[in-house]
């Protein structure tokens, strides 16, 4: 039986309103990074990047509606893990949480690795490991001191990002208009390419979905959000829609300015486009913006993985003494944030391609589970005093689940193999802690 003072420490502090939650979600998505991955996505989708982002948005929007419903019904931290455990059972909840850890654990590492790669390009005399360690130390310190401080810091970073995105879009449009001359811009060209097979665009959409990952991550901040039953559903949907609009517009205007997929280096295609539309001065501003975007995204990503680990530790699925710890002064899951920082050090031995290859596996699996949770709640009628209709409770989540499974199947073989290996390891661990599934995973009352 727990002592009263221990129970008192197990509550996170509610300080976040709708604007702060929106900023965290958008910072996690890092809208400016749409340009950092543009070349790879354009080649994978055979020059239909804008359409790929739009198709991904359709799947994400339906899933966001499901997340919003569940965040309202279960206003606690934990995201897809918590929702699946409460809607189905502890075993499935654990496996969804394990799959989600694949996404959450490695995403901060990838963010820090990409940021370090950009800085190494600009300052080749400084070793990459110094940039990686600097990112980890700074973001860890901000997240341990408190989510409220990190939220205020994100305001400045997001303003800078949005200004650079707006300038990039305007310069692309001006360049395309000047290049087209009197004949005018072919407005439909980025979306309408009859010679491109739909499978190629879907392969691009599976990559494009990586950019949307922040919309679901904010559900882990539910216990730190003021009036979460109203705030969280709105925030989740708005983050998906706002982010999607930015991604589609950015890809669309970039395709207008630079049609085709011929780049000197696909990994840095946006730099080539930036120099083409704005010269050397704009390239410098653009690079600075990318670094700020990575830093803001790293703060939000690390905050989310810390809170997912906290939810699993609190339920004793992971050792509670370590993962369920809340710092007595800062009221943050300090140990979990530190663990995420230590995991980020793996970036010292990996490259971007390897570390990003299987992130989306866990994300799509979690998205599918969330949609199925809403379907189950609708079919069982266990939705309390919040009425769920057939459209919002059955049709929309089924569309979302099918779309997420389609995106999952569109991942490359390496991502699928690595994802399955991670899943099997989790299944073996679950088998061990439940004594061959003879007992449910441990949990505590919330």
Give the secondary structure arrangement, pairings included:
Blueprint: H1 4-9, H2 18-29, H3 33-36, H4 38-44, H5 49-73, H6 79-87, H7 90-122, H8 128-145, H9 147-180, H10 198-208, H11 214-217, H12 228-257, H13 269-314, H14 320-323, H15 334-344, H16 352-356, H17 359-380, H18 390-409, H19 413-433
Helix pairs in contact: 2-9, 2-12, 2-13, 4-10, 5-10, 5-12, 5-17, 5-18, 6-7, 6-17, 7-8, 7-13, 7-15, 7-17, 7-19, 8-13, 8-15, 9-12, 9-13, 13-15, 17-18
Commentary on this structure:
The chain crosses the membrane at residues 21-38, 50-71, 92-114, 126-146, 153-176, 196-215, 235-253, 285-312, 333-352, 358-379, 388-409, 415-433. This is Amino acid permease. Keywords: Membrane, Transmembrane, Transmembrane helix. One of its GO terms (molecular function) is transmembrane transporter activity. It is a single chain. With 446 residues, the chain is an all-alpha fold. The chain has a domain at 4-60 and 102-350: Up-down Bundle (Amino acid/polyamine transporter I), CATH 1.20.1740. It has 19 helices and no strands. Helix 5 packs across helix 17, helix 5 packs across helix 18 and helix 7 packs across helix 8. The chain starts with a helix and ends in a 13-residue tail after the last helix.
Quick take:
The protein is mainly α.
Please describe the structure with a list of short key phrases separated by commas or semicolons.
single chain; 446 residues; mainly alpha; Amino acid/polyamine transporter I; 19 helices; globular
